Task: inverse folding
């Protein structure tokens, strides 16, 4: 066996979780190696919806503009359409992904970023290129075989698939980001809840100029209610735009108990023709693959020095577009903690907070995504399309909604209501932004438990409570306009205060931990010209917020304090696992 390769962190997998972990670690100066058994990065679109929180992460890691340059912008994402085929009858639409005027306003108020559609085969190169440029060592065709760990590190055996030989990589920590069939998670013995393989689906990637059917109602998703659409799959047939309006991906279900159909080019083209509804338009099939709908989540994300992220820990259908978002946010949560543990600033106990904070999010995402599949059924019910029937009967049911009868009027109302309810899949702003962490890395401030004024899945509620992401407000600094989120992150803690908060500034500078300081107020480093921060900060001018490297509030004190240094020191000891 050849000489052992050594690194601080070994990452298995180069997908969204692994690539973003590498990017964050290299940005923070932590040596890391990424291994992937494949010869290239993703070659199919797969994950694509990129929400505001993920764009905030990418903004902090310095690649937001690289993503924006290649992504489909938000205004082309949101006429989610329900139809009998793209060329057929339209049954209704949902203004989606922040394109409803009221939701768009909420998006503008919530974040300095905009969501976008960035297919995985374009996202991975952005993340990986930046990671490698900053120091990540990337090894393609290198297959993880096994690992063993001791008190000082993890020894991983890998196989070079080009040469055929095996060798060892010695790392202080191992990140398993090797997807929904994670061998790292299996070898680590991570306990899982839920089940795999609850339904069967097929992805068909194809090229066709569908401008005449889509450009007038631009959208990321077109849902097709056609015979066979309720068999397996994700609730209905789906035509997804990969690149407007020439590259597409279809999702079509199959009976998982009978096994996947033979994915010939002829079969794939027949499905495309059925969902597009045009037998003449030129179609080029690029790829097709079968997969299963899963409802599984890890109850624990780590075992000793082995930590898992992404689909290794939460496996669910693409509903709500939460997969890569949750994966990237997992890694962002983990990377700064590894950095501080590796440089001796924090105790290894800090890493225990990774599971405490991210496992509830993963479980929520798995539950929400699977529930969204079920919420498509009422659309079929409104058309009496769930009971076994001939295609002719389904078309007759759909046509009946046009009649001037009391029954047809009721049917139209039920259909509108069922389509509108899909807002829980396509405009779940609260699911995207309302994460609340409870762990030893969060210091409660003794205020009463938070209550939500509106549905917490649909509506974002900003707060500076410990455990919440710092609220977004626009500040100015000289001629610059920047978000409060732009003042935090960058791998270090940040203390925000205002006029009268000098005691907190002195306390921050007296700590052994790097803490950036931000003073907001007239004539200060940062000013609040609109008065938004004064309302959102929920503290007095002389109060303080201590924000973690991931943008989450770790400690809050509403007023000035005589013992600011002692309070801040105690909070940091707790956060860093030294208490």
Result:
């Amino acid at each position: 066996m050849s000489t052992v390769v050594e690194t601080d962190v070994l990452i298995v997998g180069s997908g969204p979780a692994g690539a973003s972990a590498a990017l964050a670690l290299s940005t923070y100066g932590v040596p890391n190696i990424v291994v992937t058994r494949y010869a290239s990065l993703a070659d199919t679109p797969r994950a694509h919806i990129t929400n505001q929180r993920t764009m905030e992460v990418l903004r902090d890691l310095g690649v937001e503009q690289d993503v924006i340059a290649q992504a489909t912008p938000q205004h082309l994402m949101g006429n989610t359409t329900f139809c009998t085929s793209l060329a057929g009858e339209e049954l209704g639409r949902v203004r989606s992904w922040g394109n409803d005027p009221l939701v768009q306003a909420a998006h503008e108020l919530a974040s300095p970023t905009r969501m976008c559609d960035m297919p995985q085969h374009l996202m991975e190169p952005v993340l990986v290129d930046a990671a490698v440029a900053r120091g990540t060592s990337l090894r393609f065709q290198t297959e993880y075989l096994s690992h063993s760990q001791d008190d000082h590190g993890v020894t991983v055996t890998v196989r070079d698939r080009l040469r055929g030989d095996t060798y060892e990589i010695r790392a202080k920590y191992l990140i398993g980001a090797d997807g929904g069939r994670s061998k790292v998670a299996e070898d680590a013995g991570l306990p899982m809840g839920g089940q795999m393989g609850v339904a069967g689906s097929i992805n068909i990637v194809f090229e066709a100029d569908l401008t005449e059917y889509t450009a007038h109602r631009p959208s990321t998703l077109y849902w097709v209610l056609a015979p066979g659409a309720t068999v397996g799959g994700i609730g209905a047939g789906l035509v997804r735009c990969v690149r407007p309006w020439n590259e597409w991906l279809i999702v079509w279900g199959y009976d998982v108990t009978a096994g996947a159909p033979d994915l010939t080019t002829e079969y794939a083209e027949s499905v495309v023709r059925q969902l597009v509804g045009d037998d003449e338009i030129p179609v080029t099939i690029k790829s097709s693959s079968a997969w299963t709908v899963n409802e599984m989540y890890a109850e624990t994300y780590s075992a000793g020095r082995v930590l898992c992220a992404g689909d290794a820990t939460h496996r669910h259908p693409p509903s709500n577009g939460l997969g890569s978002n949750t994966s990237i946010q997992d890694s962002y949560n983990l990377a700064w903690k590894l950095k501080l543990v590796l440089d001796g600033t924090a105790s290894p106990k800090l890493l225990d907070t990774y599971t405490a904070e991210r496992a509830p999010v993963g479980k929520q995402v798995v539950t929400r995504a699977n529930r969204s599949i079920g919420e498509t059924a009422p659309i079929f019910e409104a058309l009496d399309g769930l009971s076994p029937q001939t295609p002719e009967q389904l078309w007759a049911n759909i046509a009946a909604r046009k009649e001037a009868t009391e029954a047809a009027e009721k049917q139209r109302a039920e259909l509108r209501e069922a389509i509108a309810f899909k807002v829980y899949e396509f405009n779940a702003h609260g699911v995207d932004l309302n994460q609340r962490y409870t762990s030893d890395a969060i210091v409660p401030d003794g205020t009463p438990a938070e209550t939500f004024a509106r549905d917490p899945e649909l509506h974002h509620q900003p707060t500076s409570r410990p455990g919440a992401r710092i609220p977004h407000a626009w500040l100015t600094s000289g001629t610059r306009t920047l978000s409060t989120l732009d003042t935090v992150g960058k791998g270090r803690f940040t203390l925000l205060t205002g006029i009268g908060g000098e005691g907190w500034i002195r306390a921050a500078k007296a700590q052994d931990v790097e803490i950036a300081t931000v003073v907001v107020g007239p004539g200060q480093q940062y000013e609040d010209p609109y008065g938004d921060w004064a309302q959102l900060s929920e503290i007095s001018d002389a109060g303080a917020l201590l924000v973690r490297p991931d943008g989450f509030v770790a400690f809050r004190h509403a007023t000035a304090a005589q013992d600011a240094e002692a309070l801040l020191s105690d909070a940091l000891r707790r956060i860093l696992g030294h208490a």
Q: What stands out?
A: Residues 120 and 447 are 41 Å apart (CA to CA). Residues 352-374 form the longest helix (23 residues). The two ends are 43 Å apart (CA to CA).
